[in-house]
Amino acid sequence: MQHFPIFLAVQGQRITLSGGGEAALAKLRLLMKTEARIDVFAAAVAPEIETWASEGKLTLTRRTLASGDVDGSALFYAADEDEAEDSRTAGLARAAGVLVNVVDNLHDSQFITPAIVDRDPVTVAIGTEGAAPVLARAIKADLEARLPVTLGPLARIGKAFRKVAEALPFGRARRDFWADYYFNAGPRAMDEGGETAVHPALDALLNDHLTRPQRDGHVAFVGAGPGDPELLTLKARRALDEADVVIYDRLISKEILELARREALMLDVGKEGFGPSTPQEVINDLLVEHARKGAQVVRLKSGDSTVFGRLDEEIDACDAAGVTWHIVPGITAASAAVAGIGQSLTKRGRNASVRFLTGHDMKGFADHDWATLARPGEVAAIYMGKKSARFIQGRLIMHGADRATAITVIENASRPDQRILSTTLDTLPTDLAEAEMTGPALTFYGLAPRAAALALPEMQKELA
Ligand code: SAH
Known about the structure:
The structure is a single chain. The protein has 16 helices and 17 strands. The protein is of the alpha/beta class. It has four domains: 14-113, Rossmann fold, CATH 3.40.50; 151-210, no CATH class; 218-331, Tetrapyrrole methylase, N-terminal domain (Cobalt-precorrin-4 Transmethylase, domain 1); 335-462, 2-Layer Sandwich (Methyltransferase, Cobalt-precorrin-4 Transmethylase, Domain 2), CATH 3.30.950. It has a five-stranded parallel beta sheet with strand order 3-2-1-4-5, sandwiched between helices. It has a five-stranded parallel beta sheet with strand order 10-9-11-8-12, sandwiched between helices. Helix 13 (367-373) links the parallel strand 13 (355-358) and strand 14 (380-383). Helix 5 (151-165) packs parallel to helix 7 (195-210) and helix 6 (172-193) packs antiparallel against helix 7. It is extended, with a radius of gyration of 30 Å. Bound molecules: S-adenosyl-L-homocysteine. S-adenosyl-L-homocysteine is lined by residues 226-227, 251, 301-304, 307-309, 332-333, 337, 383-384, 410, 412-415, 440-442.
């Protein structure tokens, strides 16, 4: 992010603009929406500016900007549409320590003006770092179509009601009330009776919410999928929208965390491979503690929570504490990884079953398991298998597996930095070491990428 979006308090502040043509008009139309004092300097101005000046909407000085004119302004716009003049006026403003925007000149501007959706007091600012104004306009049009014009009045009336609504306990109860107002009761009252109907509707709604029994705490075990936020289920999104507390693992991508409610308490209980981790008992206690306080807790686990996620221990903790829970399934890493290589997990005539294994438990793998896996046509999805690659190779070869058996390792499946390593049992450990994979990786035993998938611009090793 090269530009940080903020909302600047400009009430009673000066904003100065140099210029009187088209560019000046466009900026002034936006600036006049604010409660700032607007000073315009220009030798020649468009008639609209004359009119606005005569209506007292801005102060017009009919000469070019001079030293001292900008002093004390909050913002300055160089809008003369003339490179030399813009550079001169911008220089004056900069010398006066005022933030400068040179219209249509990203490079010399200290701030840029976003595309704005105005549902005052609700304001949406859209920026593309100057990269795609067309895109910004399209997003603006889209939002404008989606946000009813009644949103402005509803928000204004709501704002005045905030103090009264504090009769509700802080947190979920208050949020539920406001959600009910903005998305149900408010728009309905506005439709039926206009602005005057909104106040009585708010009173009735508050009364209704004050007399409701409080919602109990609850834990949702939510599968976050392999990383791509578009692979979240709709139910997972809804749970994140409603969460008071989100307890998440290391593998949850930051794009997905972004989707949680801003006010939600975000607790990182990440475990890293064999390294330091938050003890499971601590996680169990956190779940119970927050749910008991009445929070809607989302326990966010990568992939599907029912696959190598120690889910049962957490469920047992909830049950023991009398905390209700439910599971929202997710897309497990094996599903995302197999999609990435264009293959099936099972295939008629090749394998009628597939095993999900974890590299962690391999040491306790019984000999008959190795012998079964070593047979031709077997397919296994190995989670957390990077560190045990050499061990797996040794055991399988010892039990008679063909050294040429295909192995595919998919790192960061479904994420933009997904990489595919296509190798064989024979060369797995060396190829893996060479590939230096640092992201989560899933190892497929007995599967090679489909030929077409091999054409992907991934890191590829030719099959021996
Ligand atoms: N519950 C998860 C698995 C947790 S165990 C699931 O259903 O996917 C963590 C292991 O999952 C990692 O070590 C890695 O082997 C695998 N994994 C998770 N996300 C992955 C991804 N995006 N790409 C490849 N493997 C992944």
